[in-house]
Amino acid sequence: MGKNIILTGDRPTGRLHLGHYVGSLKRRVELQNSGEYDEINILIADDQALTDNADNPGKIRDNIVNVVLDYLSVGIDPAKTTICVQSALPALHALTFYYLNMVTTARLSRNPTVKAEIQMRGFADEGLPAGFFVYPVSQAADITAFDATVVPVGEDQLPMLEQTREIVERFNKIYGKTLVLPKAMIPENETQRRLPGVDGKAKMSKSLGNCIYLSDTAKTVKKQVNGKMFTDPQHLQISDPGHIEGNVVFTYLDAFCTDDDFARFLPDYKNLEEMKEHYMRGGLGDGVCKKFLINVLEETLTPIRDERAKWEADIDSVYDIIQEGTARAIEKTNETLARVRKAMRIDYFEDRSIVGEWNELLRKAKQ
Ligand code: TRP
């Protein structure tokens, strides 16, 4: 203990998109390469994904590879980061079962993220799977099993961290200091927190078709930007003054472009400020802005695509990477489980010391 350990994770329910990139993946790579952490772990949370996809396990099975390919293509390095699969870590299941006794159903009912998800998935009418209702407890098991000190997540995950911290505190109070108290690390700014969909809707979402995926072809990216990207509906003539607020082209430029990109692709301006001023004044058309944005996005996406192509041609190695990562994680999480069982004094079969205790108990009872 006393180490700096990161754990984070994703549900493997689909390919990752630019929203994931600016909101978390980019940060993970920076953290990985910062050298400030003793261990970095990424959990592919397939068990958690099953809590609302029990009728469609094939979807989860298929998306494990998509998610791992997304990790590897953005620069997650398996030599520095352990990538592992949740369902293959039996210690997490055992920990979850013990932690369920550290929470009340009333407390679980108050989790705002779970509440919102219950609404979104129609579980309020259809019936709520018990596994889904308790997944924050399983997430507490994920986090504590790795002795994580830092958990980089989106804002929507803050209730999970709060729940985890409560479980840790309660467990440590009852059984003695055993579990590490983790902290959330959330995105630094608004752009990272929520990259809107190309249509301007609050979030990228598969069902809305407003995503740009990391695995999209250049042609698809171009189509999404030129064909679907929301700009300023009042900006009818190029000479009209334009609005920046809510204009997705500029939101994306805020997230992705550098001064360097201007020198390379749009030398009329030194930086984004100058470009924005011109747009607001009038005289700068959406077509020019979109063309620039496509170039900017391709600066990020081309190397990701190239890296992805390499891994796609070698899926055997991808398999080995998650198998090895999972083997390491099995060891680590089993150690934590052993520590927990010891603290709870349910480690009956570690040695035979309980035989002496039982004999003593029986002897006393006869006196
Ligand atoms: N709940 C997270 C999400 O939906 C995924 C997740 C599962 C996770 N276990 C985790 C995140 C542990 C951080 C730590 O994105």
Descriptive account of the structure:
This protein has 367 residues and is mainly α. The chain is built from 18 helices and five strands. Helix 4 (90-99) packs across helix 9 (135-145) and helix 4 (90-99) runs parallel beside helix 17. It is elongated, with a radius of gyration of 25 Å. The two termini are 45 Å apart. It binds tryptophan (TRP). The site of tryptophan has 14 residues, from strand 1 and helix 9. Tryptophan (TRP) binds next to strand 1 and helix 9.
Which short descriptors sum up this protein?
6% strand, 5 strands, 367 residues, three-stranded parallel beta sheet, binds tryptophan, mainly alpha
Shape: elongated
Tell me the β content. 5-15%
**Major beta-sheet overview:** 3 strands, parallel
* Average pLDDT level: 96
**Residue share in helix:** 55-70%
Distance between the termini: 45 Å
Describe what is shown at a glance.
This protein is mainly alpha-helical.
Strands, helices and their partners?
Layout: E1 5-10, H1 18-34, E2 39-44, H2 46-50, H3 57-74, E3 81-85, H4 90-99, H5 105-109, H6 112-120, H7 123-126, H8 130-133, H9 135-145, E4 150-152, H10 158-175, E5 183-185, H11 190-193, H12 218-228, H13 248-256, H14 259-265, H15 272-281, H16 286-312, H17 315-344, H18 353-366
Parallel strand pairs: 1-2, 2-3, 4-5
Helix pairs in contact: 3-16, 4-9, 4-17, 9-10, 12-16, 13-16
Bound molecules: tryptophan (TRP).
